[in-house]
Every structure is written in structure tokens, then in C-alpha cells.
Amino acid sequence: MGCCFVFFQAEDGIRDLVRSRGLGDVYKRQSEYSPSLELDGSSIVFTRRKNHQEDLYRSFIDSLGNFSAAIPLDDINTSSNEGAHCISADGTLILFTGCDRDVLFRGCDLYFTILQDEKWTKPSNIGKMINTPAWESQPCLSSDGNTLFFVSDRVGGQGGRDIWFSKKNVRGVWMDPENIGSHINTSRDDETPFLHPDGRTLYWRSNGRLGMGDFDIYMSKWNEDEQMWSEVKNIGYPVNTDGNEGALIVSLDGSTAYFSTDYFSKSLQNGKSGLDICYFELPPFAKADPTTFVKCKVRDGVTKKPVSASIEIVRQNNNVLFYNDETNVSGIALIPLHYKNKYILHVTKRNYIFYSAHIDLDRIYNSLEPLELDVEIFPLIKNEESKPVILNNIFFKTGSFELLPESQTEIKLLYNLLTSNPQIHITITGHTDNVGQNEDNIILSLNRANSVKKALVEKGIKETRIQVDGKGQSVPVDTNNCLLYTSPSPRDRTRSRMPSSA
After folding, report:
1. Contact 401/471 with Cβ under 8 angstroms?
2. Per-residue confidence (pLDDT) for residue 49, from 0 to 100
3. Which among 182, 199, 229, 444 counts the fewest CB atoms within 10 Å?
4. 339 to 218, 295, 335, 409: CA distances (angstroms)
5. How far is CA 266 from the centre of its chain?
């Protein structure tokens, strides 16, 4: 089977096969299914079954949306079956299903492989925290890599095959899996979970609800405020048919869906069933939230070499943590962010000064034109002052030195820096724009620096470790920013201290 483009006539709901594209020859007796996309949309990985053998294949997508000839992932594929997989947001981790591969783990289990030096490592069993003597398959990794959805028929479910999930703890270890619950799972089979990079729109297939055929595709959205899933909705005709639909994924912008179906193979092969991967435009009610991505590259500010660092992103409007993970060994992280939202970004590493930025997304970025952040972090060097760091996420009311609630994330980061490095002192220097009189702006900038100091002192930092300065509009750095400089404690100081900035 091949990948096909599906066109829907709105007037009568007739679905027409317009053209086949890229992933195989339509009339060959083989099936393609379980697609997964890299976050940047540059390639698709899928399962191909040929002569009862399941293997993983990859096809690259060019700027016009054309698929390259699919190539097998020979580093992963074996004489056993490899299928029902997912790929991490940055394309460096694949989770897949393998059956009867280990002495310790019988049946079907989840395995993982990591891309290192452009080769996939030997697959390893994900471990007994996830895998059991029951059937485990169809993994879906959240875009931040911290939640794993999968399907199992283990004891404790709602009946049949259920969707389960596990979260990573602070040590990066998977926790005990939980059943996603009866709102999503039914007494029959609920399978192929896909959580969109928006972090809240879930798609899956089920044969336990009133539908159009055997398996239909459904969706629900997570309500953060109410901590519950929304009403379950059937995607509807002409996507769902009297055939078997499933394994649906959705593009980053929330509009284009890829899924597998046997609908076309029945008509093309005189009733002989096989699976095709098709794609279509989702109806408005079924679209996920438009999501873009940031490609963050972190380097040592002195050596200019890539470093692995922790990245934390918080929603500016409510100070809720949105993303928390580490860059890969190349110092790179691909991070999904919601369109038309504002975020606070912090990059931290032990014995380094943190990096601070805020992101205001006003348009969708793609793989050809990503939003790239080249971040340099500087090491804390004993007996030396740091380079100035802009505190990009300290916010004040207009014309005031009253800290806004959105500043608390950065205040906490400053507090952590000082408590983790008791030997350093800091100087906070306030700056303003050029609106108003310079004398007034000097007073305002000093008061703003003092507001930051006061917030830190209230958390328990000694006043003697913090100095403040106000430059007003006389030394422009950026509009209305504070700067932070770190320096050794007086007893460690070997030369006169210059102001430090953040």
C-alpha cells in the first residue's frame, strides 16, 4: 500500500482518491501504518508489513510536501517484528513494540533506541516499570518527553485493551503507570493514543463506542483548569467509515492528520484488506491548537562548545510550568510552543550563570524557518566577576517599581543561584527607556533594582550579598531591563569588583 492524499467533497461527503505519493507502490500487497512525525515535520517514520514481516521505515518530506522514497531503519530492524512506535520531538529517540525478544520479557513489550553518531543504538527493553507479562504496545511520547502513553491489556483496566500513561520523576525514571480512566477507555479496545504537541489534544481509536464501523477515530481535549478530559467526539464521516481506521497523528499546526485505513485497499485489491497511510485536512472542531517550535542551541560562552543544560519554560500569564527537560549531547532541544502565547525561558547548568529570555510567538514557525535561539551560558569562575546577564523576565507595572506576578519565576531562579553558590555576591542594576526625565528615570531604575533585592531578602538571602544600582536611561541596554553581575564574596575577592548584571 502507499501513502495517499484524500480529498473530500463537502457537498455530499464523497471521498475521492486524488493521488498516491511517496511511501510505496499502491498496488503491491503490503501494508503501511502507525505513522509518526518529527516535531519539525522534516520526516515521517512508519511501520511496513511485507510477507508477514514488520519493519520500521523513514521518509523525508521536502519543502513542497513531497515524500522521499522510504528507506528501512536497518540499525533497528531485525528478523523479528518492529512496529507500533513513536519518535521523540527531536528525532533522537524511537520507542517501538517488539514481541518475544527477551528471556525475561515474554509477549509484546516496549523497546527504545537512541540516535548516536547518526546510528541507532542496539534496542533495549524499556524495563519492568512499564512492561509486564501482559501485552504492551503502541507508545506515544509527549513532546517534552516526560509522559509516555501506551496500550496494554493488563489487569486493572476498563476491559479489553486500554490506554495507560506513565510520567518521569525528577531522576528521569518512569513512574508506575496509571489507567487514563473510564472517560477515555471503554469496556472494549481503546488503542493508538496520540497526544498532539499542544499538550492537551488526544486522538485514539476505539471499537467500544457507537461508531460507523469496527474501529473509529475519536478525540478529546484536556482542560487544565478543571483537570479533566472534555467530551469525547467521533471524528466522523468521511474519515471514519465501515472499515478500520486508526493510528492517527496530527501536524504541528493542528490541521493536517495522517492515519492508517483499510478503506482503499478493499476497493483497489478486490476486497483484499491492507492498510494505507493517508492524510487529510481536519474539520475545524477536531483541530489541535496551532503549535510551533523553538530550536534552542546551548553553548559554553567561553569555549563556544555545545553543552547539555536544563531548559525550563513557563507560561508568562500564569507562571505554570510548560516544559522542563534537557538539551541533547549536542546542546540542542526542540521545544513545542503554542501560537500567540508568551513564555518565560530559562537555561541553567550547575556552576554556570543562568540564561534568561522571554518568547512572544506571533506566528507559526516550521522546519524551513524555525525560531532559533543561540544561547551562551558562562561558567562561574572563582575569584572573578561574571559577564553581565540581562534579567529578561523581571516585569514591572508601567512607570512603577512594583513587581508583577510574572516576575516570580525569575526571582526564584535568582534565589536558587544564590543558595547554590553561597560564595558569590550580586549587583542588580536597573535601567529604563528614554521616556520621561533622566533624573526621574534614575530614581525609578534604582527603586526597581531595590524591588528585586527586597524580594530576594524576603526569601532569606542576606542583604549584604546584594548591591543595587540605577542607571536610568543613561546606559541603554534594552528597554526597562535590570542587569545582574555576580562576584566573589569579599574574602575571596582578588581585585576590585565591577558591577554584575542579569
Report:
1. no
2. 86
3. 182
4. 24, 15, 12, 21
5. 37
Task: Name the pTM for this structure.
Answer: 0.75
* Residue corresponding to grid cell 553561597: 422
Q: Report which of 256, 194, 244 is spatially closest to residue 219, judged by C-alpha positions.
A: 194
pLDDT at 22: 35
Cα distances from 419 to residues 130, 394, 416, in angstroms, run 37, 19, 5
Question: What are the start-end ranges of the E strands in 310-360?
Answer: 310-315, 321-326, 332-338, 342-348, 355-360
C-alpha cell at 324: 522542563
pLDDT on residue 337: 83
Q: How many residues comprise the chain? A: 502
- The DSSP 8-state label assigned to residue 67 in this structure reads B
Do residues 139 and 150 lie in contact, with contact meaning Cβ atoms separated by under 8 Å? yes
- Pairwise CA distance, residues 243 & 93, whole Å: 32
Q: CA-CA distance, 193 to 304, in Å (whole number)? A: 41
Q: Determine if residue 367 is left, alpha or beta; phi over 0 gives left, psi from -120 to 50 gives alpha, anything else beta.
A: alpha
Question: Nearest-CA neighbor of 462 among 490, 500, 482, 492?
Answer: 490
Q: Where does 332-465 have alpha helices with state H?
A: 408-420, 438-458
Pairing of strands 276-281, 3-8: parallel
* Those residues with Cβ within 8 angstroms of residue 360's Cβ, 6 or more apart along the chain or in another chain: 342, 343
Q: What is the DSSP letter of 461?
A: -
Q: Is the peptide bond before 35 cis (omega within 30 degrees of 0)?
A: no
Tracing cell 501494508 back to the chain, one arrives at: 31
Give the C-alpha distances (Å, rounded to integers) separating 192 from 41, 106, 138: 20, 21, 6
The ranges of the chain with pLDDT < 70 are 1-29, 103-106, 243, 263-273, 362-370, 383, 386, 433-436, 438, 473-502
Q: Tell me the C-alpha distance between 482 and 480, whole Å.
A: 7
Cell numbers of 449, please?
533594582
Rounded Cα distance, 222 and 198, in Å: 10
